[in-house]
Amino acid sequence: xxxxxxxxxxxxxxxxxxxxxxxxxxxxxxxxxxxxxxxxxxxxxxxxxxxxxxxxxxxxxxxxxxxxxxxxxxxxxxxxxxxxxxxxxxxxxxxxxxxxxxxxxxxxxxxxxxxxxxxxxxxxxxxxxxxxxxxxxxxxxxxxxxxxxxxxxxxxxxxxxxxxxxxxxxxxxxxxxxxxxxxxxxxxxxxxxxxxxxxxxxxxxxxxxxxxxxxxxxxxxxxxxxxxxxxxxxxxxxxxxxxxxxxxxxxxxxxxxxxxxxxxxxxxxxxxxxxxxxxxxxxxxxxxxxxxxxxxxxxxxxxxxxxxxxxxxxxxxxxxxxxxxxxxxxxxxxxxxxxxxxxxxxxxxxxxxxxxxxxxxxxxxxxxxxxxx
Length: 373
Fold this sequence. Notes:
Blueprint: E1 4-8, H1 12-23, E2 27-32, E3 45-48, H2 50-59, H3 62-70, E4 79-84, E5 89-94, E6 105-108, H4 109-117, E7 122-124, E8 128-134, E9 137-142, E10 147-150, E11 152-155, H5 164-167, E12 173-186, E13 195-199, E14 205-211, E15 232-239, H6 247-257, H7 263-270, E16 278-285, E17 296-298, H8 301-304, H9 313-332, H10 338-367
Parallel strand pairs: 1-2, 1-11, 2-7, 4-13, 11-17
Antiparallel strand pairs: 3-6, 4-5, 8-9, 9-10, 12-15, 12-16, 13-14, 14-15
Helix pairs in contact: 1-2, 1-4, 1-9, 2-9, 9-10
C-alpha cells in the first residue's frame, strides 16, 4: 500500500518517527501546535542510552546520525555521585565501560530537535483536538476547524495529549506532587563531569550534569540549520514547593531553597542564566492493559508519561518511534496488515514502556522521599 501517516506533535518522539518513516519512503505529515520550533523552553541536556542511540541510528539517515553524534557531549566520568547538601560525598556508583555499537552520550535538546526537524513537512500552529476513524482511513481534527486525512494517526502530543482518551480510555496521568526548576549555568574547567545529585533538607534535591559538545556547531559544515550552543551545566532543583512562572522569581525561589547549602552547590544556581530558568510539574502514569487497536495509536508521553528521574523518558519515546517505524514500514511493503501490525507494536511498547515508568518512579523516590508509587 501507499501509506500516509499523520503525526500529532513535533517533539522528539514524533519527529524521530517522522524521520524513520521518511527514510522508508512513507509519506508523513507532522502537525505541531506551537507556532514555531523555538517558542518555549524544551529543556536542556538529555541523556541518550543504548535504546535511544540505537533508535536514532535506525530512524536517521547516516548523515544526520553522524551529526547527532558530532554534537553530543564529550565523554565524562562514567559514574553517578550522590552528595549531601553540605557537599559531602555519600556514595558513588561507577558505571561499567560502554563497548556497544552506539555510545551512551548526552545531547542538547534543542540541537537534537533541530536535527530531527531537518527536511520534514511540519505544519506549525496546527493543534490536533480529536480524531475520526473512517472506513478507509483516519481524520485528524484541528482546533481551527480544518482536518487532515491519512491512513494512520499517531498521538505524539505529550503528557497533555488530546488523543489519549480515544486510544486508551483507562490511561491516566497523575501529578506526583513534585515540581522541578530547570536552569543552565556556565561550564567551568574544574566542573564535575559525572551526573551528580545533592540531597537537601525538606524534600529538595539538586541534580546537575555537563553538556560539553564534541565539536562546536560553528565548525561543522552540515547543511542543517543549527543554533550555536556553548557548553553549560544543566541543573534541576526538585522540590515539593509551589513554583512561580516568572523566570526571575523562579530563580530567586531556587536561590532561597539552597541559601544554606555548600557554597559550590549554591553557586551553581546563583550563576545561572536567569532568563533561561523555567518550571515543570512532574507527572507520571499508571500501567494500563490492552486496548482495542485501530488506525489511531500513540508514543512517548502521550501514553506513558514518566518523571525525568532516571533519564529514560526521551529514550523510551525514541524506542517507540523506531519500533513503530519498523511496524509501519512492513505494512507499506505488504508484509503485514495495518491494524495487526499496530496491535503488535502496542503490545511490545506497553511492556517496556511501563517498566520504564516504574523505573523512573523508583529513581524519583530515591531522590526525594514521599513520591507516590
